[in-house]
Specification:
Number of strands: 3
Order of helices and strands: EEEHH
CATH topology: Phosphorylase Kinase, domain 1
CATH class: Alpha Beta
Largest sheet: 3 strands, antiparallel
Strand content: 25-35%
CATH architecture: 2-Layer Sandwich
Radius of gyration: 15 Å
CATH superfamily: Phosphorylase Kinase, domain 1
Number of helices: 2
Amino acid sequence: MNKIVASNDKMSIDDFSIKKVIGKGSYGKVLLVVKNDDKKVYAMKVLKKKNMIKRNQVEHIKTERRIMVYFCIFLTLNKN
């Protein structure tokens, strides 16, 4: 089983190379990216903060993030 290690290191867009846009929506876009240090491929969701606040969607986006974090941890723990 894989261990999940908490890290206080913050990542930024500079830690990734953008390969292409794979989706667009009213709040932002989804990018195909490669992490520079380990060359793993990820999808990165980039949101327009101003639009989320303007449309009163901040709580919705926070809930979506909590679900994604839980789902990613669940997949990592149940990988094998």
